[in-house]
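Comment thread on ticket #2218

A.B. wrote:
> Attaching the input chain for the structure job we discussed in standup.
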Amino acid sequence: MAERTNILGVILAVTLLAASFGAEAQQAKQVPRIGFLASSSAERDASRLAAFRQGLRELGYLEGRNIVIEQRFAAGRFEDLPKLAAELIILKVDVLVTEGTPAARAAKTATSQIPVVMGNAGDPVGTGLVASLARPGGNVTGLSDFSFDLVTKRLELLRTVDPSVSHVAVLLNPANPTNPLELRKLQSAAPALGVTLLAFEVRGADDIERAYDAMRRQPRGAVLLAGDAIFGLHRERIVTLAANNRLPTLYPARHFVDSGGLMSYGTNFDDLFRRAATYVDKILKGAKPADLPIEQPTRFELIINPKAAKALALTIPQSVLLRADEVIQ
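C.D. wrote:
> Ran it. Output below, let me know if you need it in another format.
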């Protein structure tokens, strides 16, 4: 009788343990899993990922409790993106959030089933990521960081800060589908501003060195960077080359100015990634990406470094200083 009681006790314990494991497994399965696929590096995207997490928290999602984020960073090696996208798909993520146009393209190529939310992408219609801004179609939606007006405004700012500039180098990554579009827009605006554009394709650090060396030989030269992860990865070297060659350089994002660069004008990316969380929330609640319109940037920031200007013997006009979102002292 005692032996039978022990056996029944063991069976009951095993049953309860199995039920507990089953409940935990079911609960774990119900926790949404978000894939974060980045064209850039973990260091470069730290603030963007933090803004995305903040957006999720504002919507009631706490990482590790009721949501999981799986991260993959290509660090500028776009050829690695298909493999990284495949890794996230194997993990059965519920939504893929992408940083940069190359990552968005890799995600779209890798899956037509998993929803893809672009945290930032340049001209998603022109690059073929979506059918239209109003009705994206397919499984891709999110935010665009790109405005053609933004590109031409950078050239105008450069000429305002240094009216003597006559030759402007445009550094672009040909592997980024947005960069050639930026170049074409700049080429159409350049004649009215009285500048000659020189395009330099950049695939690595050596190409950046050659571009600055070539521009040093041009009369009244300056440099514009297209928006691409490769420049962020080499920002310290770029800022040093700009200073050593005494070439005014206008950057697409503030971290260049934080590193000692002259001036940046571009989209507030942290704002975009905070807003990306709302797309994730809607999709997890049943919305289809095809029906969620693409949102464009609404916050831009002009950051100026007067110390860098002084080193280049430039005087930033008061009208430009008054427009700045931040003047770094």
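A.B. wrote:
> Thanks. Noting for the ticket: The mean pLDDT is 89.
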